[in-house]
From TrEMBL:
Residues 71-98 are annotated as: Disordered. This is Cyclic di-GMP phosphodiesterase YfgF. SUPFAM superfamilies: EAL domain-like (SSF141868). It is an enzyme of class 3 (hydrolase). Residues 1-69 form the EAL domain. GO terms for molecular function: cyclic-guanylate-specific phosphodiesterase activity.
Length: 98
């Protein structure tokens, strides 16, 4: 993302559209502090990737948070699940007639 101007512009454009539509933005594959900071500046709400945390079982994640005193931060920026799309939004297969 940060090594290609084209990639950055595509991501910035997607974020701009999402912000105009008042949608939450989730970024995947965040692997460095520089990427995190750039995505924050573009208005990204939620991030995941190896920089944020390595994949692990929920029980392990909660146990690690309890021992480090960071259990609140584990859930404060967690995307709600499931997040229903507003009526008429999204790319449902039926609407795409695939």
């Amino acid at each position: 993302m940060l090594t290609s101007k084209v990639d950055y512009q595509i991501i910035a454009s997607i974020c701009k559209v999402a912000l105009m539509r008042r949608l939450s933005i989730v970024a995947e594959y965040v692997e460095s502090a520089e990427q995190r900071d750039a995505l924050k500046s573009l208005g990204v709400d939620y991030m995941q990737g190896y920089f944020i945390g390595k994949p692990q079982l929920l029980a392990s994640l909660v146990a690690d948070g309890a021992t480090t005193g960071k259990t609140k931060s584990l859930t404060e920026n967690m995307a709600p699940h499931p997040t229903p799309l507003p009526q008429g939004e999204g790319t449902d297969r039926a609407r795409l007639k695939l």
